[in-house]
Amino acid sequence: MKKRIFLTMLDKDEGLAKLMFQEMVRYGLEPGGHFWVDDLPNMAWSGAIPELCDPACACWAVIGQAGRFAEKATRQGLSYLALAAQAAHGHGFPILLSPSGGKVDAASLPTPLGGAEVVPSGLGVKAVAKANAPRGADRPEYRLNPHPLPGLGFWLEVGPGGDPWKGAMLGAAGAEPDAHGVGPAGSIPQTSTLHYPVRGMKLALGEREFDAWGVKNDLSVAESYFVRLTAAPEAIVFGSFPDEDDASVFTVQLA
């Protein structure tokens, strides 16, 4: 069975898209893809989740003018989509960035794209190698998964990747929490019992201030903390509840 690759075309160039699809087929890959739409309020990026997060998808390539990778809205949308892909496939899932007309500095990319490889040329060769390369076991310290629900808001799911958390919290820069819950990992709970819920926390990390909510429910690897945000976040901080001396707190840049 052919390995599948998902192509994100940042620029609506149907001729280039056709060439890219043909190149992937020539290298023995089964391509799918879409043209990118910058529309964070309506979570346009989420339309790619079903195909990108399909278990059969083995690689993701993002193709566009180099300047597009510097645009804030594009970076945020790609970051959220990368989080979804990594939640589905593991943190070792191969992401390739193919810029034209300039360079992209991998070190300047948001956290979810930090492991992406910049491929200025020879995308087909690199893609087939990555799609067929074995990946090691995924042992993340945490779980992080976006749940974009049109009409119901943008939710984030966080939880421990290994050792249980004593409570949980999530804060955002560029957005505020307005609902939260605790439940089994994978789906937003309709109802939940929250232990000592806390709202309106302010966390300062570096030059950023985060608005955070939290709970003191203990979480195992099978349980998650879910938080709805009022807007598309530029960065998030999350982990076990911060009044513990050994609280594990993680920061993810998204813009």
At a glance:
The chain is an alpha/beta fold.
Structure description:
- With 255 residues, the protein is α/β, with parallel strands linked by helices.
- It folds into 2 domains: 3-132, Response regulator (Rossmann fold, 3-Layer(aba) Sandwich); 142-253, Immunoglobulin-like (Sandwich).
- It has helices at residues 14-26, 49-52, 72-89, 123-132; strands at residues 3-9, 29-35, 57-65, 95-100, 117-118, 142-149, 153-160, 165-173, 177-184, 198-205, 208-219, 223-229, 235-239, 249-253.
- It has a 5-stranded parallel beta sheet with strand order 2-1-3-4-5, with helices on one face. It has a 5-stranded antiparallel beta sheet with strand order 10-11-8-13-14, with no helix packed on it. Strands 6-7-12-9 form a 4-stranded antiparallel beta sheet.
- The radius of gyration is 19 Å and the shape is globular.
- The two termini are 37 Å apart.
- The model has no long low-confidence stretch (mean pLDDT 96).
